Amino acid sequence: MVESLFLSAVAFFKHINLFSSALSEFCTSGTCPAAVGPGDVTYCWTDEQGKKVKCSAPLYTDFTMSYIQELLGDEEVFPTKGFEFLLQRIFLYLFHALAHLYWAHFRDVVRLDMHPHLNTLFVHFITFCREFQLLESSDTGPLEDLISILCQYHRT
């Protein structure tokens, strides 16, 4: 079970990082001075001292993706006791990246004809997170309408 959760985290990380990279020309410190998601929630990075830091969306994404890559590559972390907490944190950061893409860049995604791929990835991601209780409903709440529509569509 631990191994499959870890491998899934790696796969989701790679796919979401690829989407973020593909949209990097649209997501700049000029276009996205803050990492904003649905409902105009602003995602802040927490530094080494535990202080919340507001930063641009590309910087937030860079911080989170670097953090996740470091964790996933650390053989001391997986599998160990307490890895569940780290796995939940990884999936929360990945959700933030997806939420920002939908909130701030969906028009760009559509222009690039990437929306079917993003929607499928998102449904797979949400379904996986629900199956293994990796996200709180309070985290996904602002996108619940989108989640309901996409999950219903993909079931048919």
From TrEMBL:
Coiled-coil zones: none
Domain of life according to the entry: Eukaryota
Protein name: MOB kinase activator 2
Record-linked InterPro entries: MOB_kinase_act_fam, MOB_kinase_act_sf
Keyword RNA-binding: no
Keywords assigned: Metal-binding, Zinc
Residues annotated as binding Zn(2+): 27, 32, 100, 105
